[in-house]
Every structure is written in structure tokens, then in C-alpha cells.
Automatic annotation (TrEMBL):
Transmembrane domains' residue ranges: 39-57, 64-81, 101-117, 129-147, 167-186, 193-214, 226-244, 265-291
SMART domains, per database record: EAL (SM00052), GGDEF (SM00267)
Species of origin: Mycolicibacterium aichiense
Domain EAL: start-end pairs: 510-763
Alphabetized UniProt keyword annotations: Membrane, Transmembrane, Transmembrane helix
Name of the protein: Diguanylate cyclase/phosphodiesterase
Residue ranges constituting the GGDEF domain according to the UniProt record: 350-483
Top-level taxonomic group: Bacteria
Membrane listed as a keyword: yes
């Protein structure tokens, strides 16, 4: 920051000028003595003000830490002012003086402030940290005692006041230095500048403290001594650290293993110094050599053990963040890197893209070739995708056959990577000696410069939405998310035609919709409407088809396409079928009571045809209402029964023997088999709307439909055309012998009361 750089630069230049003044004795001894008394307090005040500024800009524990540091520096400043007053005004040198007690406040609060700074997660136990601090403190005290304090303590020519001051100040700074070491060990890479400035400040103060003790012990210290510049430089470092702490820290991806190696070697440096310097001074003979060597070996052994443990932890952490099958990143690592990329985007306005990729028809590989072959395919797919990426890109296997790519940088480059990934699937995979051509569905979401509120979760959801679009379209190209895209969920189909309300998109909304559907079924809240079926020759109503509707309180009236997949997937076929039969047959009985025999057709879920008890159930429902079986037609969808013909034939034959008509619905919409016309006991064939849509304009389509009409008539089967929407199609069907027509051209679906009114009106002369 420019605003932070100006005061830091001014303080650094002031320190340089002050050092030159002390070294060159500018202005003589009196001037230097005055500057020595005032400058220390001025720099202390500067550091305290900077700490206050940092506290106001910080939050949480950082604010508490800088507030405590500001109080500590203020106490130091007051101590310097007190010392200046005593030496310059009163010209007295007291020990202990009020200044010493204020220094003691700084000594106590500064380590407390260091401990208040938030630590990086998983940096080790507090007990180990305590032992590290004790090792550092004991080692440094031993060095100070051998080098400085012991000599001062034993000096005979030094007065008690000078001796006490010489001993106290190094011990003060030693205490603060240990707190700073603990702070460095607990801090992470994201706080490195502030960390090293604070550590540097304490180290400079420690240097001046030790120099003061040495000079004071030999009666050579005087105000303005060049060695005292360390106190001023230390305060300048404190101020710079406080100002720079306001800068936003670069995001560091969370990791269970510390990345910095400072904690490994830092606690052993003072021990190594104590074990080498002290014996060299106080010991003699062979011990003077062997003890330092032994201490060096012990410290080296401990550091190496720490490095080995760190390497093992890193390997374990890497395995926890990798997919065990493919070796790619797993969901946790992908989310961490995506969060890191999104944080950097907020700082640098860089582009972040996510590609969601899902293998098409992977279940077929699992079912036909087995799980080992499917696992081998996933490994090959992961290798092929990884080979298309740039350095810095991330590919993850999220589970099953789902992969995700994180791409940073230029948007065009991200698109090129995606195109390379899709092109890589053009080459077949060799699995168990077989060539397997696998295609992916891929959806891409890219951050925009204007969309500042997008989160990592939103970006992944957008990529998934685009991927679902790609899967529905069966298109191998990469679909990029756009604002008008809507997630087509496999459980809830969205039909926009004729005012069909949009279905729920999120998982939570699907759960909510399923719960509402269950309650509606339990209460019998689904409604029936009926679409008339007309004799194409006479134009009279020959019957109706029952259609299901859900009058939803929030989404208006839902058609089957919006909720039928939920019924199929969540085991609701039986209760819905029972509800439909009750409602339809109740309406039919009401029409009969009015003197109107109106045949009604009911769609039946194909899996229910496996139930051998179905004919008895339908027979009982008809008998309870005194209805003729000939009034009921059961429609079955032909493309759901390809492998079930043998099992359902017996059930259909029983229904037909009871007098119930059987119809094949949507004939021509799926994998039609003419063998159905031969093998199944059926009375009607209903042509699908798409099968007859172009008969009036396409000669080839007309020829096919005409041939099928003739074929079914030869088999004694009635032909029904559904989805008739225009006069030209109706006229063509009439001319070519189609028996019954049904569709919007004749009538929209109507209520039960409207059916009876319409049929009654037709019955009048």
C-alpha cells in the first residue's frame, strides 16, 4: 500500500539519520544526550500509533492482538518519557525507577500479544510448543549468562544500580524474544512479512539489550551509544509490521501438513548455540571439543527426525486428498483449490472455469464387462484427461464416472483445453482386449468480470447444469453455461408447452416436491381429466381416455411429465394406480347412472402387468360399481415391455377373457416390434402423435402409416390415432381407414361433468 509505505520510509530514514548522529556525535555530547532521551520515546510513540491503526483495521483475534501490542508499546513509550524526564530534567539515575516498571509492562504484554495472533491450523500440539519455548528460553539464558550476565554478576567495580539494570534489560528482552519465537513457529506463510518484521524488531532490541549489559558491566555505556540504535530500529520494525498487517493476506489453501519448515529448526538454534559457545568458553581440555560436537549431532538428529515425520505426514495428506483408483484429486482437494482460485480471482480479477464431465453409458460397461473393466476404463480416462491439461490445471474424480476440471487464466485458453479433452475421447480405449469408444457429456461454467457475487459452489452448479444439457442433447461438444439455461433434472422433466409450469430444479426442491406428492396421493388429491375419442366416419364420441393431473398449490396444475418420473423412481406406482382406477371407475359409474355408457381407457404402468393378481383386482373394482368390463380399456406402452412380453401375456389374456379391452399406446414411438401385433392379445393400437404427424405432407410417412393401418385391420385390431392437431391430418386418416381420432383438433381434455354433458348433447336428435 502507498499509504503504508510513506510512514515506513520516513521511519527508516529517521533511523539512518539517528544512527549517523550517534556515530558522528552531531551537536556534541549534550545534543546527543537530549536526542537519545527524546528519539526513543518518539519512535515508541510511532510504533504505538501504528499498532492502534492496525487494531482498528483488524477483526477477531487479530484486533485483540494488535490492541494488546498497542498497550505494550504505549507502556514502553511512557517508560522512555519517564527515563528522559529523570535524566534530562531531574538529572537523576534511579534503579528501580518508574520507567523500569513501565518497561516491565511492555515485557509482559508483548508476549501476550504474540500469543493472541491467530495460528495456522494443525501446526502441532500446545505441549510441544511449550517445550520449544522452554528450550529456547533456557538455551538463550545459558548463552547470556556465559557471555554477559555471569561477568556482570561477578563484577566488583560496578554499583548495585548499574549491575541490576545491566542484568534486568537483557532478561526483559529475552522474555519478549521467546514470545516472538513462539509467534514465528505458530504463524504460516500467509503472514510472513509481518511475522519477520516483528521477529526482526525483537532481535534488534535483544542485540541492543545485550550490548547495553556488556557496556554497562564495564562502565563504558553512555547515552547515544551506537549500539542503542537497535531499540529505535526495533520500534520502527514494530510500526512497519502494524501498517503492513492491514494488507489482505494472500489466501493459503488449507492443508493438514504445515508447509513451513521454520518450526523444525528454529527451537534448536538457541540450543545449538548454547551447546557450542558455552562449553567452548567455560570448559577445558577434551570436553571443550566433545560437548559441542555432541550437541551438534543431537540437534541435527532431531531436525532430521522432524523432516522425516513431515515427509510422512505430507505423503499421508496427499493420499487423503487423492482418488484411490485414478490417483487424481478427490472432491475435497478440488473444492479447496477451487476456493483458493476464487479468492485469487477476487484479488486479481482472473478467470476461473470449471468443466463438469460425465461418461455416457458407463453403466453399460459396468453391467456387461464387470467392475474390474470399468475401473480400468476410469483409470485410462483419468490419464487421458490429465494429459490434456496445462501446468496449474486440476482434474478431479468426484465419484463414479464424474470428473471435474479447474482451469485458471484466459477464457480462450480454457476453451482450448476443454476441446482437447473432448477430442481425446475420439480414440477408443483398449479394455480387456476390446476397443471401447466412450463419449463424455461436458458442461462448462466460467466466471465473468461483472458477476462478482458468484461463489465456488455456484460455479460448480452452473457447470453441472451445462453438463445435463449436454447429456440431454447427446452432443459431444462442450456446453457452456448461459443465463437462460435451466437444469433438466433426470427425475423431474420440464415441459414448457401450453403453459406447463416449470418444475423444481434443486435437490431440496425435489425432496419437497416428492413429499408433497406423497401427501397428495395419500389424500386422493390427484385429479382425472378425459380426452374424447371420436369415430372418424361419424364424428361421434366413442369413448374417452383418462389423463392424470396434479392440482399443485404452488405450481398450478402439473401434467404427468412433471411428476411421473418421481412416481416411477420412488415406488409410488401401486398407490397411484389404485387411486386412478377408483376415480375413473367412479366417474364411469356416475355416467352409467345418467344413462350414458361411455367407454374409458386407462394407462397402466407396464411393471404392474407382472402382477398375476391384477385381473382379480380389476374384476373386483368393476363388480363393486356394477360396471360392464366392456366399458374399460387398459392401455400399455409398448416401448416399456420389450423384454417382458412372455411374462405379461398371461395377465393380458386374463383381462381380455374378462371382457376388458387391451390397447398398445404410443405405437411407433419406441423400439416398435410387429411381433407385438402377433403375440399379444390386443384390441386396439394407438398411433403415437409423432408417428402420424407428417402423413399429410410426407409420402414415405404416409405409405408406412397406411400399410400399418391395413395390417392391423387384417388382424381385427381397431386403429386409434392420438395427437391429431389439424384438419389435414384428420382428413388423411379418415380417407385411409383409421377408425378413431383423438387430439386437440377434436377436443382438449375436459372434466368428468363436461364429458357427460358433451355425450348427452350428442345423444339428442
Amino acid at each position: 500500500m502507498l499509504q503504508s509505505g510513506v510512514p515506513i520510509l520516513i521511519s527508516a530514514l529517521s533511523c539512518l539519520l539517528l544512527a549517523l548522529g550517534f556515530a558522528l556525535n552531531w551537536g556534541g555530547d549534550d545534543a546527543v544526550r537530549i536526542v537519545d532521551g527524546i528519539a526513543f520515546a518518539a519512535f515508541g510513540a510511532y510504533a504505538a500509533v501504528c499498532a492502534v491503526v492496525a487494531a482498528r483495521a483488524a477483526h477477531g483475534r487479530n484486533r485483540l492482538a494488535w490492541t494488546t501490542m498497542a498497550i505494550a508499546l504505549a507502556a514502553w513509550t511512557l517508560g522512555e518519557l519517564t527515563r528522559a524526564y529523570l535524566t534530562l530534567v531531574l538529572e537523576r539515575s534511579l534503579f528501580p525507577s518508574p520507567a523500569d516498571f513501565l518497561y516491565l509492562v511492555f515485557v509482559v504484554l508483548a508476549p501476550v500479544a504474540f500469543l493472541q495472533f491467530p495460528a495456522e491450523p494443525t501446526q502441532g500440539s500446545r505441549i510441544r510448543l511449550l517445550f520449544d519455548a522452554l528450550i529456547v528460553a533456557t538455551s538463550l539464558f545459558l548463552v547470556l549468562w556465559v557471555v554477559v550476565l555471569g561477568n556482570v554478576y561477578q563484577a566488583t567495580g560496578v554499583g548495585p544500580a548499574e549491575q541490576g539494570r545491566a542484568l534486568l534489560y537483557p532478561l526483559f528482552i529475552l522474555f519478549v524474544f521467546v514470545g516472538a519465537v513462539v509467534f514465528v513457529v505458530r504463524s504460516g506463510a500467509g503472514n510472513s512479512i509481518v511475522m519477520w518484521l516483528l521477529m526482526g524488531g525483537v532481535t534488534l532490541m535483544a542485540f541492543s539489550g545485550v550490548a547495553f549489559a556488556v557496556l554497562q558491566g564495564s562502565n563504558r555505556y553512555h547515552p547515544g551509544h551506537i549500539t542503542s540504535i537497535g531499540w529505535v530500529l526495533g520500534m520502527s520494525c514494530f510500526g512497519a509490521a502494524a501498517l503492513l498487517s492491514r494488507r489482505p493476506r494472500p489466501p493459503v489453501p488449507p492443508t493438514p501438513v504445515p508447509q513451513s519448515s521454520i518450526a523444525l529448526w528454529l527451537p534448536y538454534v538457541p540450543l545449538l548455540i548454547a551447546g557450542t559457545v558455552a562449553p567452548a568458553i567455560v570448559m577445558t581440555g577434551l570436553l571443550r571439543v566433545l560437548v559441542p560436537i555432541l550437541m551438534t549431532l543431537i540437534c541435527a538428529r532431531q531436525v532430521l527426525s522432524g523432516w522425516e515425520n513431515r515427509r510422512l505426514l505430507a505423503a499421508a495428506a496427499d493420499q487423503a486428498l487423492r482418488d484411490p483408483l485414478t490417483g487424481l484429486a478427490n472432491r475435497t482437494l478440488f473444492q479447496d483449490r477451487l476456493a483458493h482460485a476464487m479468492a485469487l480471482r477476487g484479488r486479481d480479477n482472473r478467470c476461473v472455469a470449471v468443466l463438469s464431465l460425465d461418461l455416457d453409458d458407463f453403466k453399460l460397461i459396468n453391467d456387461s464387462m464387470g467392475h474390474p473393466a470399468a475401473d480400468s476404463l476410469l483409470i485410462r480416462v483419468g490419464e487421458r484427461i490429465a494429459g490434456c491439461l496445462r501446468a496449474g490445471d486440476t482434474v478431479a474424480r468426484l465419484g463414479g464416472d464424474e470428473f471435474a476440471l479447474l482451469l485458471e487464466g484466459d477464457v480462450d485458453d480454457a476453451h482450448l483445453v476443454c476441446e482437447r479433452v473432448i477430442a481425446a475421447f475420439d480414440t477408443p480405449f483398449l479394455i480387456d482386449g476390446h476397443e471401447v469408444l466412450m463419449r463424455p457429456s461436458a458442461g462448462m461454467a466460467v466466471t465473468s468480470l461483472t458477476d462478482n457475487d458468484i461463489t465456488a459452489e455456484d460455479l460448480v452448479k452452473r457447470a453441472d447444469t451445462a453438463m445435463y444439457f449436454a447429456k440431454r442433447s447427446r452432443n459431444s461438444m462442450v456446453h457452456t453455461f448461459s443465463a437462460d439455461m435451466t437444469l433438466l433434472d433426470p427425475d423431474i422433466e420440464e415441459l414448457a408447452r401450453d403453459g406447463e409450469p416449470r418444475s423444481a430444479k434443486s435437490g431440496a426442491e425435489q425432496v419437497r416436491l416428492l413429499g408433497e406428492l406423497r401427501r397428495t396421493i395419500d389424500r386422493g388429491g390427484l385429479d382425472m381429466v378425459y380426452q374424447p375419442k371420436l369415430d372418424l366416419e361419424t364424428g361421434r364420441i366413442t369413448g374417452v381416455e383418462a389423463l392424470l393431473r396434479w392440482p399443485h398449490p404452488r405450481l398450478n396444475v402439473l401434467r404427468p411429465g412433471a411428476f411421473m418420473p418421481l412416481i416411477l423412481r420412488h415406488g409410488l406406482m401401486r398407490p397411484v394406480t389404485d387411486l386412478v382406477f377408483r376415480k375413473v371407475l367412479d366417474d364411469c359409474a356416475r355416467w352409467v347412472s345418467m344413462g350414458l355408457d361411455i367407454p374409458v381407457a386407462v394407462n397402466l404402468f407396464a411393471p404392474l402387468l407382472r402382477d398375476a393378481r391384477l385381473p382379480d383386482t380389476v374384476r373386483r373394482l368393476l363388480q363393486e360399481r356394477n360396471l360392464s368390463p366392456g366399458l374399460l380399456t387398459i392401455e400399455i406402452t409398448e416401448d416399456l415391455m420389450l423384454d417382458e412380453v412372455g411374462r405379461v401375456t398371461g395377465v393380458l389374456q386374463q383381462l381380455r377373457d374378462d371382457g376388458i379391452r387391451i390397447a398398445i399406446d404410443d405405437f411407433g414411438s419406441g423400439y416398435s416390434a410387429l411381433s407385438y401385433l402377433r403375440d399379444l392379445p390386443i384390441d386396439e393400437v394407438k398411433f403415437d402423435r409423432h408417428f402420424i404427424a407428417s402423413v399429410a405432407t410426407d409420402a414415405r410417412a404416409a405409405a408406412v402409416v397406411s400399410a400399418v393401418i391395413d395390417l392391423t385391420h387384417n388382424l381385427g385390431i381397431t386403429v386409434v390415432a392420438e395427437g391429431v392437431e389439424d384438419a389435414e391430418t384428420a382428413s388423411w386418416l379418415r380417407e385411409h381407414g383409421c377408425d378413431i381420432g383423438q387430439g386437440y383438433y377434436f377436443s382438449m381434455p375436459i372434466s368428468s361433468a363436461e364429458v357427460s354433458a358433451l355425450v348427452a348433447a350428442q345423444a339428442r336428435p
